[in-house]
Amino acid sequence: MRKNYNDPNLTEETINLEMARQSLIEEFQAINWYQERIEYTKDEDLKKILSHNRDEEKEHAAMLMEYIRKHDAVQNDTFLHHD
Ligand SMILES: [Fe+2]
């Protein structure tokens, strides 16, 4: 999704967090798409490549989550305390 991040009403921190959250959504979508393709294909070579790529997307998601936790104190707290 392409978005205009030049809204003068938003702080730089808000825009950065929004970009990180949107990127996280896209990483999770990619993980789901790779997983489906892994299960569809009968080609073992392709399955291996797609599995590797899926796991890289998981690493990307973790990196983004780490960024969000660092910049959003409430979100970070939910990892420590939740129902
Ligand atoms: Fe990625």
What does this 3D model show about the protein?
The protein is mainly α and 83 residues long. 78% of the residues lie in helices and 0% in strands. The two termini are 33 Å apart. The chain is elongated and about 50 Å long. The chain has a domain at 32-76. The chain is built from three helices and no strands. Fe (ii) ion (FE2) binds at residues 27, 30, 57, 60.
Rg estimate, integer Å: 16 Å
Number of helices: 3
- What letter string, H or E per element, gives the SSE order? HHH
Q: Tell me, what's the shape? A: elongated
Q: Structural class, from helix and strand content?
A: mainly alpha
Mean pLDDT: 95
Give the key terms.
single chain; 83 residues; mainly alpha; 3 helices; elongated; binds fe (ii) ion
